[in-house]
Amino acid sequence: MDRGAVWRVWTPLIAGTCAVTVVFMRGPGPHGTARWVGLALAAIGLSGVILARWTLGQSFSIAPKARALVTNGIYSKIRNPIYVSGEIVLIGVALMLWQLSLLLFVLIVIPIQVFRARKEARVLEEKFGEEYREYRRRTWF
């Protein structure tokens, strides 16, 4: 495994797993069913983020760049799995902590992610044209 794979996959996996575990074990709020549902959602979301980062490989960037059109793996169904999975993590954490006000944060983040996704879509459509438009037609968000 190359050094880049460690940085982009294993480091976030370990850090995310540790953070979710600490929130689950020591965070405020009741330790009942909602906390377990929140843990499950956070784990699913974290898994989605890691899977998406793994699939993107060297194509990942913070600013929109059209290095390659990744259409395999999780990207064969969802165009922006990191954004979707990140929202699932946030919802899970809100449930674990029973801080429903954190759901307001989720509602604020959603339009920001939609804006970012549209910006990325413009960059990809400029570079890949009809290939990207076809990809958009067969995938969700």
Summarize the structure.
It is built from 5 helices and no strands.
Oligomer: single chain
The total count of strands amounts to 0
Shape, per Cα inertia axes: globular
| Percent of residues in β-strands | under 5%
Mean pLDDT: 88
Helix content class: over 70%
Q: Could you give a short account of the major beta sheet?
A: none
Q: Work out the radius of gyration.
A: 16 Å
Q: Structural class, from secondary structure content?
A: mainly alpha
How many domain units? Answer: 1
Provide a count of the helices. Answer: 5
| Poorly predicted sequence stretches spanning 5 or more consecutive residues | none
Following the backbone from N to C, one meets helices and strands in this order, namely HHHHH
User: N-to-C terminal Cα separation, in Å?
Assistant: 31 Å
